[in-house]
């Protein structure tokens, strides 16, 4: 990472440690939706009633650098036809009734609610409204969010470089540097190259431009103010686009990156916004980027992902940025290494996100119908090389909003730094306010990037109440074979290790049997699962022979669980030959062993001082010294 980027991150981390707005330590945990601290803490009181408001509803996501307190947030803004912004507090039940976040984002909505007043110590750039009901109007969405389902073809973004009026000489990066970051399509990590690979060639940034630097009409304090500091998204978007209006025909773009020359509030921001420019009111994908954000490719990709309509994903815990499997979660978890020019580079996004953007062909999406069990081959999600399935989707109890996704991650392309090579399962609820997809991590240890979240051959995930199972039954050069069952009572067969090894141990998924093991010598295994058992001799012993295996490769025994099976292994004592050579001619070598030879042969642990005297050789058990 470059010295400038490292310095900026250092300064931000230092500010995070001494920020007066911080009440307690925070590890990046998820917040209640809310752009302002008053909204997040519900530190508000009802005011006079408010009739229905109408306007364009936008979901915004704020993402902080590593170590910042708090870690980030998300919330809702309604922009009326005059461009006035109101922050909305939307309860989960109201959001679910409206169809979830994606159903309302970028839509013209009628909102019924009650005005809220912040406590006296908390300010904010927008009035607050507690929402009681959401209803779409008949007005058509114009611009980039007119079709939420698919994002395809050229996606031209204009990146506008804006300096605060009180910092006109501060220019963190040149226009050419931004052009290389955003428009470089030939090699990684340019964002055009990135989105082409992540979308399987479905989208590109052709037609994108970078303009600026421009000087804003007001100082930073006009756009970032309050206690704690908060970005006024409306002022920043209005003025930064206005200073570039003479050079930009905005209706020719689907997205706008606003890059500033100093830090904003806590965060880099991504989402959408409605603007009237060049005689047209349109909804644009929008980002608000501070220097620490755009000096790393990953955060820019992350915020553009929000612009494309993607939420965060995460593990099944309270943290938003804990998953190294997705650019829309723990960007920093996959770094180092850093790109020398563009810092921390993002990974691929998950299959659920690619699917909702229309990037996974129907022929490569397996949907497990109720009452079926099917073995399929899944191809890796990053840089696939075959036409095998890219994802499996398993509806839960027939739901269209609750389901599992199954995908394969391997070290390829932008996935070169993912936590491991394995099958990864997410549980999805599309009506959540954020983090729709959460990694299935049965060990519950708070880390969705360790072995507990990586499914390998011989392992099976069960959702027994719903009759769902995913068994990894094999591995290919670029993927894995899995058996997916939905609503099927899966037969279980018992795998037994018997007799219990006394001079070594056997281990497998759910098996730890023998010397130095936990004593778990049986395991119920789903029918059809391939299980690999490993033998480990105790010191002084070597592997003897397996029994009960379908195939053996050295210390590994493979069984196919088409019936109950019993496996055994023997371990043999290691013997070495002790030789007296040449035989002495003018004397003899003697030990007590000559008189006790028969008795010594019966000792379970022979006395190392006993050995055969005279010329010749005898076998004798190996001893540690």
Overview of the molecule:
It is a single chain. The chain is α+β, with helices and mostly antiparallel strands and 625 residues long. Among the domains are: 156 residues, no CATH class; 82 residues; 47 residues, no CATH class. It contains twelve helices and 34 strands. The strands form eight sheets. It has a five-stranded mixed barrel. Strands 15-17-18-19-20 form a five-stranded mixed β-sheet. It is elongated and about 110 Å long. The chain starts with a helix and ends with a strand. The N terminus and C terminus are likely disordered.
In short:
This protein is of the alpha+beta class and 625 residues long. Residues 1-32 and 593-625 have low confidence and may be disordered.
Any idea what the radius of gyration is? 32 Å
In quaternary terms, these chains amount to single chain
Shape: elongated
- Count of DSSP-assigned helices: 12
Number of DSSP E strands: 34
Low-confidence stretches: 1-32, 593-625
Strand content: 35-45%
Strand order of the largest sheet: 1-2-3-5-4
Distance between the termini: 51 Å
Largest sheet, in brief, is: 5 strands, mixed, barrel
Mean pLDDT: 85
Broad structural category: alpha+beta
Helix content: 10-25%
List the topology elements.
Blueprint: H1 3-18, H2 37-41, E1 44-63, E2 72-79, E3 85-89, H3 92-97, H4 101-104, E4 108-118, E5 128-136, E6 153-154, E7 157-163, H5 175-183, H6 191-198, E8 203-204, E9 209-215, H7 220-223, E10 224-225, E11 230-231, H8 233-243, E12 255-260, E13 268-277, E14 280-289, H9 291-294, H10 297-307, H11 351-356, E15 365-367, E16 372-379, E17 391-395, E18 402-409, E19 422-429, E20 437-439, E21 460-463, E22 468-475, E23 479-486, E24 492-497, E25 504-508, E26 511-514, E27 522-526, E28 530-537, E29 541-547, E30 551-553, E31 556-560, E32 565-573, E33 575-580, H12 593-601, E34 616-621
Parallel strand pairs: 3-5, 6-8, 7-9, 7-12, 12-14, 15-17, 24-32
Antiparallel strand pairs: 1-2, 1-4, 1-13, 2-3, 4-5, 10-11, 13-14, 16-23, 17-18, 18-19, 19-20, 21-22, 22-23, 24-27, 25-26, 25-28, 28-31, 29-32, 30-31, 33-34
């Amino acid at each position: 990472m470059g010295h400038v980027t490292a310095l900026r991150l250092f300064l931000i981390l230092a500010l995070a440690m001494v920020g007066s707005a911080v009440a307690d330590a925070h590890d990046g945990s998820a917040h209640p939706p809310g752009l302002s601290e008053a909204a997040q803490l519900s530190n508000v009181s009802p005011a006079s009633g408010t009739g229905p408001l109408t306007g364009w509803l936008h979901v915004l996501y704020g993402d902080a650098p590593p170590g910042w307190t708090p870690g980030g947030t998300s919330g809702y803004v309604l922009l009326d036809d005059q461009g006035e912004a109101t922050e909305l507090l939307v309860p989960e039940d109201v959001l679910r009734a409206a169809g979830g976040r994606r159903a309302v984002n970028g839509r013209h909505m009628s909102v019924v609610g009650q005005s809220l007043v912040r406590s006296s110590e908390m300010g904010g750039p927008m009035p607050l409204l507690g929402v009681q009901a959401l209803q779409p109007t008949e007005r058509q969405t114009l611009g980039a969010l007119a079709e939420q389902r698919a994002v395809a073809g050229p996606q031209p973004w204009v990146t506008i470089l804006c300096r605060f009026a009180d910092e006109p000489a501060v220019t963190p990066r040149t226009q050419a540097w931004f052009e290389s970051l955003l428009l470089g399509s030939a090699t990684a990590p340019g964002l055009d190259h990135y989105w082409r690979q992540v979308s399987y060639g479905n989208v590109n940034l052709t037609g994108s431009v970078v303009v600026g630097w421009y000087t804003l009409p007001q100082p930073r304090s006009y756009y970032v103010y309050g206690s704690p500091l908060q970005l006024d998204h409306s002022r920043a978007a209005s003025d930064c686009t206005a200073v570039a209006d003479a050079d930009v025909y905005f209706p020719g773009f689907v997205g706008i990156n606003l890059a500033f020359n100093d830090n904003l509030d806590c965060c880099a921001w991504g989402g959408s916004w409605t603007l009237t420019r060049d005689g047209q009111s349109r909804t644009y994908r929008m980002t608000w980027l501070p220097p620490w954000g755009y000096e790393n490719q990953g955060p820019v990709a992350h915020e553009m992902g929000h612009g494309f309509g993607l939420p965060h994903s995460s593990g099944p815990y309270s943290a938003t940025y804990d998953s190294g499997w997705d650019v829309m979660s723990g960007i920093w978890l996959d770094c180092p290494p850093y790109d020398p020019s563009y810092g921390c580079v993002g990974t691929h996004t998950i299959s659920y996100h690619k699917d909702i953007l229309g990037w996974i062909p129907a022929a490569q999406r397996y949907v497990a119908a109720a009452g079926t069990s099917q073995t399929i081959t899944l191809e890796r999600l990053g840089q696939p090389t075959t036409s095998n399935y890219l994802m499996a989707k398993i509806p839960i109890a027939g739901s269209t909003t609750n389901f599992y996704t199954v995908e394969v991650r391997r070290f390829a392309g932008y996935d070169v730094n993912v936590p491991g090579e394995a099958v990864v399962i997410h549980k999805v609820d599309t009506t959540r306010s954020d983090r729709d997809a959460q990694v299935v991590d049965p060990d519950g240890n708070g880390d969705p990037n360790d072995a507990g979240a990586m499914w390998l051959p011989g392992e099976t995930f069960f959702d027994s109440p719903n009759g769902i199972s995913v068994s990894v039954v094999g591995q290919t050069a670029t993927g894995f074979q899995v058996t997916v069952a939905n609503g099927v009572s899966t037969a279980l067969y018992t795998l037994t290790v018997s007799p219990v090894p006394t001079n070594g141990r056997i281990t497998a998924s759910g098996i730890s049997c023998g010397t130095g093991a936990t004593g778990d010598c049986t395991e119920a295994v789903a029918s059809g699962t391939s299980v690999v058992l490993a033998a480990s001799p105790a010191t002084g012993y070597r592997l003897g022979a397996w029994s009960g295996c379908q195939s053996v490769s050295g210390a590994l025994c493979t069984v196919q669980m088409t019936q109950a099976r019993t496996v055994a292994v023997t371990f043999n004592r290691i013997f070495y030959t002790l030789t007296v050579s040449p035989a002495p001619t003018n004397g003899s070598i003697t030990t007590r062993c000559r008189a006790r030879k028969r008795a010594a042969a019966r000792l379970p642990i022979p006395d190392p001082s006993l050995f055969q005297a005279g010329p010749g050789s005898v076998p004798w058990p190996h001893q540690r010294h």
